Model the fold of this input.
Amino acid sequence: MVDVLAAPQQTRNQGKTDSSLRTLAAISLAHWVSHFHLFVLPMLFPFLKEQLGVGYIELGLAITVLGIVSGLTQAPIGYLADHIGARKVLLMGLTLGGFALILLGLNLSYPWLLVCAGLLGLANSVYHPADYAILSAHMDEARMGRAFSIHTFAGFLGGAVAPAIMATLVATVGGTGALIAAGAVGVLVALVLIVVGIPDASAADRHVDGVRAPKQSIITPAIIVLTIFFMLLGLSNAGISNFGVVALMTGYGESFSSANLALTAFLACSAVGVLAGGYLADRTSRHGRVAAACFAVNAAIMLAIATTTLPSLLLTAMMAIAGFLGGVIAPSRDMLVRSAAPPGAAGRAFGIVSTGFNLSGIFGPLLYGWIMDQSLPHWVFGASVVFMTLTVLLALVTDRRQPARAA
Done:
């Protein structure tokens, strides 16, 4: 009798697991597209410079437009995702980003490049609010950290393979063909998500103990602190990612190949650290302490790099460790936001805090560029130490303020 009753329950559990895996795979694929699309225009700069007859300042302006639009629209898109449903918003973002690149390929001109950049920025603002709202609502609570880590890893992977994909496309179908093909990826993935039937998530769907959750203000002290936390995270990594190679070459006497190897180790180990961090995030509720511990070690590593000249092999090893620990905190970072979000407000919460990343993307390159213009390459790492230390302190404050989320 027990076996007869247990069989349907096992079938239901298996069906729920299969559905969760499909949802995670589909949302991770969408996040892959978001990072891939962010690299399409920079990878085509040589082609665009020749075809449009513009300089790198004009091309850089297009990327600035993308960043500003994405930063300004993150929070409003989060509200939209909670209002009309995250699934609709995600599908619109994929389609919009795809058509933006296709239209640029069909109408190659500098004004269209700026329009395309603005549309890509708007499309990019969709992914964090919509993705995290869906994952938060439909992933198994016990595996939420791992779900977040796989989602983040997929984004890293999209950026990592973009240069090779775009180089192959340019070699086979030309620059305009590469733009159209890259845009078609977004549209095709949107169709895949429709076929898979990803679930929705909105404020109207959220209940607590079977009762519709009351409306709560999303602008809470915890969300404000987390927005600053995200900005500090971005600033602490911006110098290493964007100026690490030139800083190591000019200030430390590293060759181009050894400096690139060190940065590659940092970025590659970050991706590996994200996956490891997912398992860690599922085994603790003290996510702020995890972030603080990892960044405290990273601050010590960067301080050593900033103040001493290390052998190339040791430098690469220390950069790899720093990258790994930086990746480990990503799932815990996302769990902090999920815990701070009121019921039915995951889209808004992630939309608002992600603005911190956009702010770091706007101001970080200016700060570190100024540091390099002052011939202070060691301070590329020294400034990172300052931001990492502030991140540690803020992570501890955030961890203390937030109660553990009920399963």
Notes: Residues 39 and 78 are 23 Å apart (CA to CA).
